């Protein structure tokens, strides 16, 4: 049995989803919650495989709850329940660890299939939302690049590439490897590899020296 929790501040929606899921012999509703805080508290007491999580809720919304649950209860998968009006939350929820999105008007057989898909370890994204997600990610990438300087930085051996410059500037702004990976849409391992090459090119010892070096370069270029 797949153990499911429904999190939504509207009792009518929770009850409706619960009725739909009762059609499946493979799914058991083990808990219901009004908001993110209640969901987190219930997870301390109950074993839950998949959460159907509304985005807009009082006390704690679905985006914030997803982040905390992903950190503290990593084995629990989260499917975000959304409407097209919730576009601004799509990117953040996925970044926080959501395993997929479903529109609230989904059919009963589709919601059951969706839970099974996520439970099996796969990512779920309805076709209606796929283009919107891609659009949001593209806008994030463009914004990040627009905010990074393209100053010329040369070391004893060769000049830094544009990506290495972007990464170096983020280091000078105090960003962690995780934050840099999210802003540039690369893995933390790739960030570390870039940093190793940058330090070698500039003959610097660590990221502190790099930060000071970049800040000095940027001040001179202004």
Quick description:
With 222 residues, the chain is of the alpha/beta class.
What does this structure look like?
The model is unreliable at about 145-150 (pLDDT under 50). Helices cover about 55% and strands about 15% of the residues. It has helices at about 10-20, 35-45, 60-70, 85-95, 110-120, 125-145, 160-170, 175-185, 190-200, 205-220, and strands at about 1-5, 25-35, 50-55, 75-80, 100-105, 125. Strands 2-1-3-4-5-6 form a six-stranded parallel sheet, sandwiched between helices. With about 220 residues, the chain is of the alpha/beta class. It folds into two domains: about 1-130, Response regulator (Rossmann fold); about 145-220, Arc Repressor Mutant, subunit A. The chain has ten helices and six strands.
Compile the SSE list and pairings:
Elements: E1 2-7, H1 11-21, E2 27-33, H2 36-43, E3 50-54, H3 62-72, E4 77-82, H4 87-95, E5 100-103, H5 108-119, E6 124-125, H6 127-146, H7 162-172, H8 177-184, H9 188-202, H10 207-221
Parallel strand pairs: 1-2, 1-3, 3-4, 4-5, 5-6
């Amino acid at each position: 049995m797949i153990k499911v929790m429904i999190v939504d501040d509207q009792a009518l929606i929770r009850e409706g989803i619960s009725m739909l899921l009762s059609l499946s012999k493979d799914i058991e509703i083990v808990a219901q919650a009004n908001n993110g805080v209640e969901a987190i508290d219930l997870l301390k007491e109950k074993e839950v495989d998949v959460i159907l999580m509304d985005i807009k809720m009082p006390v704690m919304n679905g985006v914030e709850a997803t982040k905390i649950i992903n950190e503290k209860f990593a084995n629990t998968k989260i499917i975000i329940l959304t409407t097209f009006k919730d576009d601004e939350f799509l990117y953040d929820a996925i970044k926080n660890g959501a395993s997929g999105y479903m529109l609230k008007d989904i059919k009963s057989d589709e919601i059951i299939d969706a839970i099974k898909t996520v439970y099996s370890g796969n990512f779920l994204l309805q076709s209606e939302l796929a283009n919107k997600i891609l659009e949001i990610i593209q806008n994030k990438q463009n914004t990040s690049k627009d905010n990074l300087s393209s100053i010329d930085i040369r070391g004893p051996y060769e000049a830094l590439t544009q990506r290495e410059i972007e990464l170096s500037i983020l280091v000078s702004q105090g960003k962690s490897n995780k934050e840099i990976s999210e802003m540039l849409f690369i893995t933390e391992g790739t960030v570390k590899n870039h940093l190793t090459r940058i330090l070698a090119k500039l003959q610097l010892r660590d990221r502190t020296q790099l930060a000071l070096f970049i800040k000095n370069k940027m001040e001179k270029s202004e």
